Automatic annotation (TrEMBL):
<comment type="pathway">
    <text>Amino-acid biosynthesis; L-methionine biosynthesis via salvage pathway; L-methionine from S-methyl-5-thio-alpha-D-ribose 1-phosphate: step 1/6.</text>
</comment>
<dbReference type="InterPro" id="IPR005251">
    <property type="entry name" value="IF-M1Pi"/>
</dbReference>
<keyword id="KW-0028">Amino-acid biosynthesis</keyword>
<dbReference type="InterPro" id="IPR037171">
    <property type="entry name" value="NagB/RpiA_transferase-like"/>
</dbReference>
<feature type="binding site">
    <location>
        <position position="202"/>
    </location>
    <ligand>
        <name>substrate</name>
    </ligand>
</feature>
<dbReference type="InterPro" id="IPR000649">
    <property type="entry name" value="IF-2B-related"/>
</dbReference>
<keyword id="KW-0413">Isomerase</keyword>
<dbReference type="Pfam" id="PF01008">
    <property type="entry name" value="IF-2B"/>
</dbReference>
<feature type="binding site">
    <location>
        <begin position="253"/>
        <end position="254"/>
    </location>
    <ligand>
        <name>substrate</name>
    </ligand>
</feature>
<feature type="site" description="Transition state stabilizer">
    <location>
        <position position="163"/>
    </location>
</feature>
<dbReference type="GO" id="GO:0046523">
    <property type="term" value="F:S-methyl-5-thioribose-1-phosphate isomerase activity"/>
</dbReference>
<keyword id="KW-0486">Methionine biosynthesis</keyword>
<dbReference type="InterPro" id="IPR027363">
    <property type="entry name" value="M1Pi_N"/>
</dbReference>
<comment type="function">
    <text>Catalyzes the interconversion of methylthioribose-1-phosphate (MTR-1-P) into methylthioribulose-1-phosphate (MTRu-1-P).</text>
</comment>
<feature type="binding site">
    <location>
        <position position="90"/>
    </location>
    <ligand>
        <name>substrate</name>
    </ligand>
</feature>
<comment type="similarity">
    <text>Belongs to the EIF-2B alpha/beta/delta subunits family. MtnA subfamily.</text>
</comment>
<protein>
    <recommendedName>
        <fullName>Methylthioribose-1-phosphate isomerase</fullName>
        <ecNumber>5.3.1.23</ecNumber>
    </recommendedName>
</protein>
Amino acid sequence: MRVDGVPYRTIWLAEDGWSVDIIDQTRLPWEWRVARLASMEAAAEAIRSMRVRGAPLIGATAAYGLCLALRADASDAALERAHDQLLATRPTAVNLRWALEAMRERLGRLPPAERVEAAYAQASEIAEGEVETCRWIGDHGLALIEAAHRAKGEGPVNVLTHCNAGWLACVDWGTALAPIYRAHDAGIPVHVWVDETRPRNQGAALTAWELGRHGVPHTLVADNAGGHLMQHGRVDLCLVGTDRTTRSGDVANKIGTYLKALAAREAQVPFYVALPGSTIDWTVADGLAEVPIEERSQVEVTHISGRARDGLVSSVAIAPEGTPAVNPAFDITPASLVTALVTERGVCAASEAGLAGLYPERSAS
């Protein structure tokens, strides 16, 4: 994607050929800053602090983090240690485990002297694969927006999204936003209702920022406004991403997604979830019972960051001092509330049979 006319991805090899550059997403939308990762510890910190976030990007960052670890020590023990440390950074997004397992499987068969070069090649394959995957998600999701436009007859297709599932959450293109970009670029009138997405405000800070940079019409709304908009016929479809999808079609996504799905069902608005195959956890059937939900700092709930009139960015308290808070980062939307899943292989029912039809080789294992 482009920022002020310059093409960017969210992660890339630095000019030295071994360290890794990322867009520091904790600085957006106020400041554009590229941060350099020169060690496994720096990569782990970037994932934990959400300098990088979004399931596909977390996986790619972890893969490069393993590369950085092996530059310092390519032994079997170091490989296992780095794998475990990176895996522990975020518990919910399954791409993290998927990418690290792919790296370990390939590198574990090689002698230590060959691991560094192979690690960088494998990490590059993972990153490039995510880009191609997201492009195909965009193509398949475009058909849904085209159908909504034909059914509507006139006016823009109004899409409601939650959190950020655009190119900032991936390596390029995005998942939920990829079909929107494809529709916009194809000349289909599309407008996006952007949930603010408390508590970290990824919608307000990131989705609004990247849609604006691409020229896609959008409007920021409070998280609690989505149901109202649906009731009044102002939403044609919902389109969100996911950090982990069970083999039965349950979806783990940013907290608040479940409430949007409930409102969509009541208002008879289609609710679609866009995801790469790497986000499917074939080992889990019951999302509510089996998917670990990350609990983040209560400060994210009791405080909020913003830019004051003097241009300074700061964090301010929004609750009385000492107020306890709970901060689950994700919730589970059951498959019964999902109209369909949009993947790189096509659109399918949110069910074990639907996913198995697109990924027979994965479901059989």
